[in-house]
Amino acid sequence: MKNSSSEIRRRNRTSALRELLHCEKLTKPELAVRLKLSLPTAGQLMEELETQGLVRESGLAESAGGRRAMYYEAQKNSRLAIGADITRNHLRLALLNLAGEVQDTRRIRLAFANDEAYRQRLRQELEAFLNKNQVMKTALVGVGYSLPGIVSADRQRLTLSHILGIMEPETFAPAHWADCPYQCFNDADAACIRECYDREDMTDFAFLSLSDTVGGALVLNGEIQRGLNGRCGEIGHMRVEAGPGARMCYCGRRGHYDPYGSAERLAEQADGSLELFFQRLEQGDLPARQVFEEYLDRLAAVVQNLAVFTDMDVVIGGYVGHYLGPYLDRLREKVDGMDSRQFASARHIRLCRHGVDAAAAGSALPLIRQFIQTV
């Protein structure tokens, strides 16, 4: 079936907006060359985007001997999206513009409950965040939710989360405003989306998220794989220890990697503060060093297994990944000690580019992408 003229024009508008979001400014002739379109078509696209309030004039270009062309730039903040990372005890918010740039973040202590009182408080916090940033709801393209568990295929609800107490057939749907789209994402998937958003060099890799819970994702051809039941990447429930002395996972089973690899494993050594733990580690605190060496041993084994099994880069993210930079060489040494020469897994270890707000920001990015595809 041939594409209709309206569909072709929509695709061209999307392409034009993307070019403008990636460039500081462009003239109509420059856009025409980039998109391989006629100059009149490029001019019409600019006018249509300008009418929608997505593009504006941005001064005249230097003269090339004739009439000076007008520059245009994207109004990045004309539309925005909110990402909300929901954990057992906190809510982390991130406000992103059309270029995927984080404009503001906020962390709120808020204990999760699957009831209307929690949903009401969630709406209030979203409203307060919008008001703080002077954002009208009409400028909001949607809200993305990052959640520690399995989400439904339509991304409208959380269907299973041991850590939040959501057990099938019970579900959690974070509905807020009737006229505002929302989508739910597994928290590790959301952090992974943030990590590989608009990066051509990140097309195939395994992602390991070390936050309040351990999660992961497998990315092939730039797409996160969901698996048969939407549970691909549940690295936290890999068994790494056997016997009655193994640590208890929040799911009720012993020996899973989560209680050994979560951020809480380190934070519990420093009054519940991961930041304080790494401060003590940097200061040479002996108990912190001993705990961290044990932590790295477990992490090295998991990373080496992932690298051998997937034959891909392993990207470590989450709250712990944010702090691992000074200790990456030590981790690689441990992986090297477990590896055979044919795999060289240590060379495939990479750290995340984004920090503690990655899951919140990542959950907003698909809504931005969807908006751009429909302009």
TrEMBL record:
Belongs to the ROK (NagC/XylR) family. This is ROK family transcriptional regulator. Transmembrane segments: none annotated. It comes from the Bacteria. Keywords: Carbohydrate metabolism, Xylose metabolism. PANTHER family: ROK (REPRESSOR, ORF, KINASE) FAMILY, TRANSCRIPTIONAL REGULATOR, XYLR-RELATED. Transcriptional repressor of xylose-utilizing enzymes. InterPro entries: ATPase_NBD, ROK, WH-like_DNA-bd_sf, WH_DNA-bd_sf. The keyword Chloroplast does not apply.
